[in-house]
Design goal:
The protein is α/β, with parallel strands linked by helices. It folds into 2 domains: 14-74, Multidrug-efflux Transporter Regulator, Chain: A, Domain 2; 84-199, Rossmann fold (3-Layer(aba) Sandwich), CATH 3.40.50.2300. The chain is 39% helix and 16% strand. The chain has helices at 17-24, 28-37, 54-63, 70-74, 92-102, 116-125, 142-146, 167-174, 188-199; strands at 14-15, 43-44, 50-53, 84-88, 109-113, 130-134, 157-162, 180-183. The chain is elongated, with a radius of gyration of 19 Å.
């Protein structure tokens, strides 16, 4: 337990190039060049922004003798449940906007899919904490995700997204298929806040 008045510092799972530059004491341009050269591996958000995983940052820092805060080294073991979100949404502009909001601080990994094959592939290869299924698309049945053979403590929280809430969508919650129905409106911040609350539980 942290002493009173001292807040424990949480270590993100992913970092922006700006954050990496600050931690290593180099310029953002240097970090970008490292990623382009393949010396520092990075991933791209749906909006095209680079993100560097904690494990990759630790590897690079060790190999090149860059000191990091002790809490970073202590967090070397990957988290049992990474804060990942899978967005299943065919409206690419809206999905990209949601992803941008979620990844602003570099602590959440966002994956995106628009067809059943890719959804199945991502859920089989990556562990995510929240899956958001946009019901209006009609491509993915949330029942199918709920029925997957999840292991203990592996099933993600499934959220339904829709522009028109009806008795049928509410019944998904009553049946335990989804945890919540989120209405898609022009208020993207409110939409994202509902997803973030599920990640924090």
């Amino acid at each position: 337990m942290a002493p009173r008045g001292h807040r424990r510092r949480d270590v993100p799972t992913f970092f922006t190039t700006h954050q990496v530059a600050g931690l290593l004491g180099v310029s953002i341009t240097t970090v970008v060049n490292w990623t382009r050269q393949g010396r520092l591996k990075s991933q791209r958000t749906p909006g095209g922004h680079r993100r560097i995983a904690l494990q990759e940052l630790l590897r690079f820092a060790r190999e090149h003798d860059y000191p990091l805060p002790p809490e970073f080294v202590a967090s070397a073991a990957p988290a049992a449940r990474p804060p990942g979100v899978l967005l299943v949404h065919r409206q690419r502009d809206f999905a990209q906007l949601v992803a941008e909001f979620l990844t602003l601080d570099g602590t959440i990994e966002v994956l995106a899919a628009t067809d059943p094959v890719k959804v199945g592939f991502l859920l089989g290869r990556r562990r995510v904490r929240v899956v958001v299924v946009h019901l209006d698309d009609g491509e993915i049945d949330p029942h199918a995700i709920a029925r997957l053979p999840w292991g203990e403590d592996e099933r993600p929280v499934i959220l339904a997204s829709t522009t028109l809430r009806t008795h049928d969508t509410d019944r998904l919650v009553e049946e335990g298929v989804v945890a919540e129905v989120i209405e898609q409106t022009a208020d993207v911040d409110a939409y994202v806040s509902r997803i973030r609350r599920r990640l924090e539980r």
